Amino acid sequence: MKVAVLDKNGKETGRSVELSNEVFAIEANNHAVYLDVKQYLANQRQGTHKAKERADIAGSTRKIKKQKGTGTARAGSIKSGVFRGGGRMFGPRPRNYGFKLNKGIKRLARRSALTMKAKEQNIVVLEDFTFDSPKTKEFKAVLANLGLADKKALFVLGETNTNVYLSSRNLKRASVVTTSEISTYALMNANKVVLFEGAVEGIVSNLSK
Predict the structure, then answer these.
(1) Using CB atoms within 10 A of its CB, is residue 49 exposed (0-12), middle (13-18) or buried (19+)?
(2) Which of 36, 46, 167, 200 has the fewest CB atoms below 10 angstroms from its CB?
(3) Are 193 and 163 in contact (CB under 8 A)?
(4) Strand 2-6 with 12-18, pairing
């Protein structure tokens, strides 16, 4: 499929880019997208939660009442979770929420996400540009020219561009990544995916393997 190339003023340059059917027009696999997003979110979790169980509570180890003849349940330790001040039963412990996902599934998920965005016509191809210095005001002007001032936008660069990245860093709804940093979560979370002209070839090269 062909997409017109825009400049940073939102005007058509008269050029167009052919988006590969191998990446932007496959049969989308929803389950692969789900797994990749699930892994991304799982990896964001610190997993440092911890509650004290009965072995972690400071307290006497004596048997608090005789075994039989009280008319109530047996009780051997004041640190039991059934008593006030006792340890928590089956409380959370530190753990790693991450899980393994094959590279082929990840590539399929990203191709599926890009296909969904292409079908929704939510992919924009932008002429490569840079700033002389980091200026958030200039980046906001680009967003306004593209009609993305109030939308979540993911900008994908062909190569690292420090000034463009720093110009976007203070904006909540805009994020800038390179072709090697694309995640399925970022693609699905964006209302519009803005591909720099120089990034298209890199995306196809990375995801066609």
Answers:
(1) exposed
(2) 46
(3) no
(4) antiparallel
Domain ranges of the chain: 2-45+101-207, 49-96
Tokens of residue 115, six digits: 């296909």
Identity of the residue numbered 15: R
85 conformational bin, left if phi > 0, alpha if psi -120 to 50, beta if neither: left
Strand order in the sheet with 153-157: 12-18, 2-6, 123-126, 192-196, 153-157, 174-178
Q: What is the DSSP letter of 125?
A: E
Q: Would you say 133 and 163 are in contact if contact means Cβ atoms under 8 Å apart?
A: yes
Largest pairwise CA distance in the chain: 93
Domain 2-45+101-207 has CATH 3.40.1370.10: yes
Contact between residue 157 and residue 201 where contact means Cβ atoms under 8 Å apart: no
- For 32-84, how does the pLDDT look when each residue is reduced to its tens digit (9 = 90+)? 999 999 999 999 999 999 999 999 999 998 999 999 999 999 999 999 999 99
